[in-house]
Amino acid sequence: MTEPVALSGAPGSPYTRKMLAVLRYRRIPYRYLIVSNPALADLPRAKVPLLPTFYLPGADGALEAVTDSTPLIRRFEREHGDRSLIPGDAALAFLDALIEDYADEWLTKAMFHYRWAYAADIAKASAILPCWRGLSVPDADLAERGRAVAERQIGRLRYVGSNDVTGPIIEASYRRFLEAFEAHLRVMPYLMGRRPGASDFATYGQLTQLAEFDPTPAALTLSIAPRVTAWVGMMEDQSGVEPNAADWIDAANPPPTLKALLCEIGRVYTPVMLANARAVMSGAAEVSAEVDGQAWSQQPFPYQAKCLKALREAHAALAPDARAIVDRALDGTDCEALLAG
Is the whole model's pTM more than 0.70, yes or no? Predict the structure, then answer.
């Protein structure tokens, strides 16, 4: 690929921020089209409109609209050399993928919950998000757009599982995550060691909103985890980092702080992902789980069942020695239950 990679997105999209940071770190030239850019009218549309959308050559050479950040990261690994986000060690690469999925599929619950469950956060999002689709409109039109955005997004809380019962579970989990990540940053600058992995960029994407945009979680993040707040600002552009192979964590001897993060993942992400997969497989209308001894319910989410299937297949495909290292790292975290099916 010789032309700059084109993508569309918005600053309020954690996955857009994730992928922009990936492109900067990988030093891949890109052309960022914010969602109001008129040039988008001449580009193909994705079957499912998600942010970010990349415009990349298909099998026939024609541009096609491509979404889904995790496969895109792997595609860029194949098409662009150097500065890899995927550890060369297969066991560590699996742990990185697991944490990436947790950030993409669980931390996003906290992001969505805080944004649309608190009055101050709703007010800010309603005022700012519509501006990214066009600033130069009358105030009344902008206010009406804001009301429409809030109504639509608040109605979608049921998809992420945010409600009066589950809200405290999400918030307690986010607080524990902050404490664990702050402890990890005391000894390592990234989740994967002294160079960033895909999991770092996935975590960064969600935290661009939780730690920087939405007022309620941003205040909480700063009070509990000032290193995390600082880390988010630093992760925006890592193009100056010069990584080497020795910078990765040793998967066979990970720091205790990584184990603590894996324990938090197992505590909340595991029961919900397993229950969601069961609901999708059985065609149930509702996901029912128990998290921290409390009831959890949400609408089934087929994409997350697909994510769990991919993790299980990746684990099964590991060579026996690498799988043994992964299993030792996950032992006692409850993450091992994810892979039992």
Answer: yes
